[in-house]
């Protein structure tokens, strides 16, 4: 029987396929990583509840050692506003993988969002040691140094970021540093380079246009604002700035047309309602002006320019007590502006509080070294009080300022013409409107 079996087995030759080595079974994912694909899928689909369920299951199976699951859980916590919880989880990831620069970047990001800028810079510096060619680390370090008021270090880091990789956001932050330093020329140079790099970025075009507008270079301002509106006709910042330019030149109806478009996009904008109010003021519709300015004041109660304009309109309407109220509030927020004290003195004079009016004029003269109307109005008050010598001294000082204005300006000085004065300034806007000068007529201060 054994021989028969042997013969049976050797009776047929073995197939060639059986001689081939058997294919190996596909390797299984390690248990720590087997659900990562599903976690990633739910996360990018923004199905966060399902993602958290898978993460919970994965962490239970791995006893909390799955780095990717912890990382994504921290990202979800941050999106939900639980910054402290996200920080703790990112720190856990950094412990599990101490050589990962990405984990340290996320730790620093959470610290930054918690307002711990110094601690964030320390962690970013540690991350930079692990990855010296990451522009994002340099950029975020620069932003942290801005908040720490270390502007020189911030500039160095932002320049390093641009050297590694050019980004619009880095140019914007670098320009903001120069604006904080009050160097408009350098800020303009930075934004010009940014526009060359990204010519279709409406935020860059709008900001550059606003800087030119602040310097009074209206042609270039209009050019860049026009380009911004070409790429984005609904860009409310550019529309608001263009409207303010028209308002500055006295074209109130066209400016109001522009502002009507902005009101549809941002109906709760304080600069918008401030400028609308000053348009009505220019059209001598004082009740409408006060209504709009009070809405602006409701939206931004600490903006001194809105309070200034409210005081100005109330003075025009001879509502001196209300003018005193708003001008006093403006002085509390802007105590170094001489013109505010002058207008306050005008209100006090009409309220027959001569003593405090003189004090206000004295402070205005001390603070304002350029505006001749401060000295002129003070001279009028002193003359009306019978102090001719003091009035003469103020009048002579006024003449000196007028001569300086004539020498420094190619235009002939005309005290009858309203001057330009800042009426509103939004987050990144430098908006202007006309505010009248105050002159003396007979025995009263009147608005021309």
TrEMBL record:
Protein name per the record: BBSome complex member BBS4
Membrane is among the record's keywords: yes
Keyword set, alphabetical order: Cell membrane, Cell projection, Cilium, Cilium biogenesis/degradation, Cytoplasm, Cytoskeleton, Flagellum, Membrane, Protein transport, Repeat, TPR repeat, Transport
PROSITE patterns: TPR, TPR_REGION
SUPFAM superfamilies on file: TPR-like
Mapped TPR repeat ranges: 168-201, 202-235, 304-337, 338-371
Location in or out of the cell: Cell projection, Cilium membrane; Cell projection, Cilium, Flagellum; Cytoplasm, Cytoskeleton, Microtubule organizing center, Centrosome, Centriolar satellite
Keyword Protease in record: no
Domain Tetratricopeptide repeat protein 21A/21B second ARM: residue ranges: 65-158
Pfam families referenced in this protein's UniProt entry, alphabetically: ARM_TT21_2nd, TPR_11, TPR_8
A cellular-component GO term for this protein: ciliary transition zone
Gene3D superfamilies referenced in this protein's UniProt entry, alphabetically: Tetratricopeptide repeat domain (1.25.40.10)
Family statement drawn from the similarity comment of this UniProt entry: Belongs to the BBS4 family.
Primary location group: membrane
Protein's GO biological process: cilium assembly; microtubule cytoskeleton organization; protein localization to cilium; protein transport; sensory perception
């Amino acid at each position: 029987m054994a021989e028969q079996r042997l013969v049976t087995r050797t009776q047929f030759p073995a197939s060639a396929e059986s001689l081939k080595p058997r294919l190996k079974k596909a390797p299984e994912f390690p248990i720590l990583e087997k659900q990562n694909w599903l976690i990633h899928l739910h996360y990018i689909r923004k199905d966060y509840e399902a993602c958290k369920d898978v993460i919970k299951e994965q962490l239970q199976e791995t006893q909390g050692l799955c780095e990717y699951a912890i990382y994504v859980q921290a990202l979800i916590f941050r999106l939900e506003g639980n910054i402290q919880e996200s920080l703790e989880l990112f720190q856990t990831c950094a412990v599990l993988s101490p050589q990962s620069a990405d984990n340290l970047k996320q730790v620093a990001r959470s610290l930054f969002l918690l307002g711990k800028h110094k601690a964030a810079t320390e962690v970013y510096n540690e991350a930079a040691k692990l990855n010296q060619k990451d522009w994002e680390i340099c950029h975020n370090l620069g932003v942290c140094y801005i908040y720490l008021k270390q502007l020189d270090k911030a500039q160095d880091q932002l320049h390093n970021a641009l050297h590694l990789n050019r980004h619009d956001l880095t140019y914007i932050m670098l320009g903001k540093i120069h604006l904080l330093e009050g160097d408009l020329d350098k800020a303009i140079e930075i934004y010009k380079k940014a526009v060359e790099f990204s010519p279709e970025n409406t935020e860059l075009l709008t900001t550059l246009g606003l800087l030119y507008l602040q310097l009074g270079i209206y042609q270039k301002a209009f050019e860049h604002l026009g380009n911004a509106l070409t790429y984005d006709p609904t860009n409310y910042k550019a529309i608001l700035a263009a409207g303010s330019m028209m308002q500055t030149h006295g074209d109130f109806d066209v400016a109001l047309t522009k502002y009507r478009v902005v009101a549809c996009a941002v109906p709760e904008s304080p600069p918008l309602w401030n400028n609308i109010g000053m348009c009505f003021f220019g059209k001598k519709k004082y009740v409408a002006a006060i209504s709009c300015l009070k809405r602006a004041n409701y939206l931004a109660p600490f903006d001194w320019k809105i309070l200034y304009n409210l005081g100005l309109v109330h003075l025009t309407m001879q509502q001196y007590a209300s003018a005193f109220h708003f001008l006093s509030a403006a002085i509390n927020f802007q105590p170094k502006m001489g013109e505010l004290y002058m207008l306050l003195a005008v209100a006090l004079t009409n309220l027959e509080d001569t003593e405090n009016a003189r004090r206000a004029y004295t402070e205005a003269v001390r603070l304002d070294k350029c505006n001749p109307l401060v000295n002129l109005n003070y001279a009028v008050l002193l003359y009306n009080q019978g102090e001719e010598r003091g009035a003469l001294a103020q009048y002579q000082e006024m003449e000196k300022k007028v001569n300086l204005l004539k020498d420094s300006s190619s235009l002939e000085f005309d005290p009858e013409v309203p001057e330009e004065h800042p009426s509103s300034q939004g987050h990144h806007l430098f908006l202007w409107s006309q505010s009248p000068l105050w002159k003396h007529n007979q025995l009263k201060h009147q608005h021309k």
